[in-house]
């Protein structure tokens, strides 16, 4: 029961990243680049503190660190930019689907064995994402913002693939956040400010800090704690709940609605991912 509770809490934290980001940007209290930069810095501070407390120090080097930092930056700023227009649940669905497809492609390139069910699942998930993003064919969303979230999904997928080789996931994530934070500030300054210009009100800053320190920093640390106790298939299926929780959070806290086309496309994406990760027992 304790493991179930901690897993549910972690998935809720992951979904809350989408809700908090959308809440801040939809309310106009902060611009996307500033939100991404503050979230990154807050996450670096929290994860650094956790590493010092739990590991007794920080280890900033290591193989794959450059890829990890770059992939984290792509994810963080693509994620923030997308939520200037996307609903929380829809953005989480696009992100999650692209992450799974990216990891599937990474497995292929690495020469991993790929059973037919994974090909079928990846094809269904890709079809659902294409329906979501194709102009005029599915739910009417902003294509640039949808593609921005897809880019964030590629970034997080590459980040996850790189993290598989890390001996200590907590220290590796802390190092990636700490090294990415100063680069992220430069990226944030270089990105276009958007129609509202660069601005950061008290509410937007508070939401960015909450997303960085709590739902990202503590959320990732908690996930690494419960992950060893979960079967790999169970861990993958658990993450299927993240878009669902994000949809519910968007409806409750942001007044977002869920149309029939969005529901059907979502079912296609999540169904495809489920087929890919579930082991069928004979």
TrEMBL record:
Keyword list, A-Z? Membrane, Signal, Transmembrane, Transmembrane helix
Topological category with respect to the lipid bilayer: Multi-pass membrane protein
Gene3D superfamilies, A to Z? 1.10.3730.20
Q: Which residues form the EamA domain?
A: 148-277
Pfam families given for it? Answer: EamA
Q: Which residues cross the membrane?
A: 36-54, 66-86, 92-111, 118-137, 143-162, 174-193, 205-226, 233-254, 260-280
InterPro entries xref list: AA-Vitamin_Transporters (IPR050638), EamA_dom (IPR000620), EmrE-like (IPR037185)
Keyword Transmembrane helix in record = yes
Leader sequence residues: 1-15
Q: Where is this chain's protein located in or outside the cell?
A: Membrane
- Could you name the domain of life of the organism this protein comes from? Bacteria
Write down what this protein is called.
DMT family transporter
The organism encoding this protein is Roseovarius ramblicola
